[in-house]
Amino acid sequence: MEMLLNLIHSGLSVVLPFVILLGILIFVHELGHFLVARWCGVRVEVFSLGFGKKILKYKKGDTTYALSIIPLGGYVKMFGEQPGVEISEEDKKVAFTHKTVWQRIAVVLAGPLMNFFFAIFVLMMVAFIGEDAKAPMLGDIKQDTAAYTAGFRSGDRVISINDKKIGTWEEIQNVLSLKANQDLHLDVVVQHEGSQEESKVSVLAKAEPNPNILSAYDYMANVEGLTALSAGTTVGVIPNTALFALGLRTGDSIVGINGSKVSHWRELQAALEKANVSAPLSLDIMGKREGDKEDKALTVTLAPLESMKTFTMSNLGLESSELYLSKVMDNSPAKAAGLKEGDRLVSINNTVLNKWDDVIANIKSFDGKNPVDIKVQREGQIVDLKITPKMTTQMTAAGTEEKRYTIGIAPVVNLSTPETLVVRTNNPIEALVRGTEKTWDFTVMTVMSFVRLFEAKISPKNIGGVISIGQAASETYKIGITPFLQMMAIISVNLFILNLLPIPVLDGGHLVFYTIEVIKGAPLSLRKMEIAQQVGMALLMSLMIFALFNDFTRIFSL
Question: Which domains does the chain have, with CATH numbers?
Answer without folding.
Answer: 11-130+486-557 (no CATH), 146-222 (2.30.42), 235-320 (2.30.42.10), 325-411 (2.30.42.10)
